[in-house]
Amino acid sequence: MPRTPPQCPMDSILRLLMGPWTTHIIWVLSDQGPQRFGVLKRAVPGISTRMLTERLRMLQRAGVVWREQAETIPPAVTYGLTPRGNDLRGVLDAMGEIAERWKTEGVFEGDDLGGAASPNSRL
Amino acid sequence: MPRTPPQCPMDSILRLLMGPWTTHIIWVLSDQGPQRFGVLKRAVPGISTRMLTERLRMLQRAGVVWREQAETIPPAVTYGLTPRGNDLRGVLDAMGEIAERWKTEGVFEGDDLGGAASPNSRL
DNA sequence: CGGCATCCTATTAGATACTG
DNA sequence: CAGTATCTAATAGGATGCCG
Question: How many CB atoms within 10 Å of residue A117?
Fold first, then answer.
């Protein structure tokens, strides 16, 4: 439906990060190191299996995470950040800093900003 | 539906940027300077009146854009980036750089990564 | 355990029309 | 011109259940 005027080179990245939960996942992988599916799921409370798989697949396609499958029974699958994933961490941190600054300026005080598709909200 | 474990300080920022069209709007305002509603609308092709107003209101609430209304007839309303808005521009640029780098590494080759709520796609 | 496939609903955002 | 209001279509994503 909508268009994409070629402008905005960072859109592709944003589109990547934008996905629901995406940052949480990256954050956890970056912070806690490589994790197995189940652990990851528990580390991102509220996410559904479907979502988690979908996001991981997407991040994989983007070369942001790797996936290692142990063909044991039961199977054990581990995910981790690729170097490229760490690039992103940088951006996230940059945002984190600004967020921090804004917070002390009292930006996020009231109700949420009513962004858009943001599954990371109120309980 | 979902939760928000307090982690991920940058989530608030992302939630802000995540909204559809949001980056485009900021980008235009940052690139073209303050603009009137109509011009803005034409600068972000495909966006609906409703969306544009909604996004602008949201960005206003976040203190990212200012709004100046001239009570003439017909009315003339102008929007521009606040200093805080320029902070964001920095983040966007950072992302842009990475995007650029990745692009030369051929990340975004195939179909889109199927992010999430991203109205800024094909067409 | 990891993760598809299915189903089903809540939300979202486009189109349209009308007002100050 | 700059919105608001309404109505609707599309879809994202949660829940569930089964399979390797």
Answer: 14
Task: Say how far apart CA B2 and CA B79 lie, in whole Å.
Answer: 34
Instruction: For strand D, list residues 57-116 of chain A whose Cβ lies within 7 Å of it.
Output: 74-75
Question: B57-96: per-residue pLDDT in tens?
Answer: 999 999 999 999 999 999 999 999 999 999 988 888 888 8
Q: What is the pLDDT of residues A35-88, one digit of tens each?
A: 999 999 999 989 999 999 999 999 999 899 999 999 999 999 999 999 999 988
- pTM of the predicted protein model: 0.81
Alpha carbon B106 to its chain's center: 25
| Domains, chain B | 11-98 (1.10.10.10)
Distance CA B12, CA A95 (A): 9
**Chain D footprint positions (protein CB, under 7 Å):** 1-6, 12-17, 20
Q: Would you give the DSSP letter of residue B46?
A: T
Distance CA A95, CA A99 (A): 6
C-alpha count within 13 angstroms, C-beta hemisphere, residue A42: 5
Residue B37: CB less than 7 A from any atom in strand D: yes
